[in-house]
Amino acid sequence: MTATELRDYLIAEGALEQFVEEWRRGVVPLRRAHGYRIDAAWTIPEERRFVWLLSLDVEPAAWEARNDAYYADPVRESLDPDPARLIESQRRALVRPVDF
Length: 100
Prior knowledge:
Helix content is 32%, strand content 34%. By secondary structure, it is an alpha+beta fold.
């Protein structure tokens, strides 16, 4: 089974491109090293938003434990610069596909 999470971030004024670059350099390779797939990512510049989908081959019930392990990784803890400092607010939700 695959679990997929939608993340929607409001980024600090004037920092959207900086966030994207730091996310690309630091977060993406580390997520991949932990077995995640980055399915898609978008910016909504006029709203200062960054939205992305990431997936992992686990049951949805195991998602949070794997996410906690990612954040506990010493490489993640020492990420510098840490793009998370540019996030003003965020929404996260596990999503399920809809057949159509």
